[in-house]
Amino acid sequence: MDKKQHISIFTTASLPWMTGTAVNPLFRAAYLAKDEERKVTLVIPWLSLKDQEHVYPDKITFNLPSEQEKYVRHWLEERTGFLSAFDIRFYPGKFSRNKRSILAVGDITEIIPDEEADIAVLEEPEHLTWFHHGKRWKTKFHMVIGVVHTNYLEYVRREKNGRLQALFLKYINSWVVNIYCHKVIRLSGATQDLPRSIICNVHGVNPKFLEIGMKKKEQQQNGNQAFTKGAYYIGKMVWNKGYKELLKLLRDHQKELTGLEVDLYGNGEDSAQVQEAAKKLELTVRVHHGRDHADPLFHDYKVFLNPSTTDVVCTTTAEALAMGKIVVCANHPSNDFFKQFPNCRIYDDGGGFVEATCKALTEEPAPLTDAQRHELSWEAATERFLSAAELDQVPAKRLTKTPSNHFMSTSLDFRRNIEDASALVHYVGTGFVRLQPDEEQFKELGLAFPSGKGGSSH
To answer: Which pTM value belongs to this model?
Structure first.
């Protein structure tokens, strides 16, 4: 009998969409499977051709799931340098334009056969369970671990009637996560506090960035000038991704920052407005199309400016530190993990931003030590994940303990009954709002087309 843990990682996006929930779960699957001590399956959304055309960049589309799997594996292996011994399976998804995200269609727990249902990792557990209409995750799997990627409340607060929406969403998130997850890992304190949650950054950086950092370290040790360019920022070009904060800081402190030149790189809905705002400044702020952060164009920049406060743990900040750069970022829970690195310069206000930026431009970055490089790696992130999820101790078992006395038994039964009732209410409610399945999608995935009534929640 195979006693290996079987970890099924469900996520809300897939390459070629270059978003955090496509990239980070992919690396997690690869590094969890690397030592072959456990079986790993990555479960990602399969979109209709119409949705693919809308979501995926550079007109990339796939006619079959096998084509997309080949693309995903090739992208990953180019960056890790090793063959990844994990399975990839697909669930039917639909892109919601008003939510700007992919939603699952049908009961996606069915993608994993019952005999393989051991440990489930829900990347963005709120997102994956808002509209879940099917078998209860905790019933299907021995252990369900949520990994919270996104600060949804911060995004919602910035919309019309944001405070009211955020209050409602906060309750809904806590409710569904409590029903469906045994344990929750929050990447930073910038996320909503959720039932049975702990804070731990379980993400690493693409190994390519650490390689770039090693080359820069060698240049510094040989007495060569490793960084010949000044300051830059890279990110999706929408106002709430740090551009609003950065341009305000530059506008408010133009006199103190006289002579500063900044390059902005990104694509997005607000590109034209960002360009207009940059032109109004007396400082030299150049706006460019987005590029891969590992592009040689970025290697020689010395200072990465990142005032964003909507991130949970900013991937580009980690990448910049891995490349040996100085990072100037806000004193915010999303940046707590980075404070351990000497090249991370934290500011509290506009004056602090000016001081940190000017100082960074006159100094040389401190070369990363081996321990600091390891801390940024996916190897270290995987160790942190296994520890935080308590998967490094004993094989996962069902989290049902026999109470030691009658009072505890009554208390436990009461809590379980409340949870069961909540699950039933959620199941009935999602029956009215669930997405209608696309027969063609199910056919492409080789799945049985669901009947009108749906499955059971227990």
So the answer is: 0.87
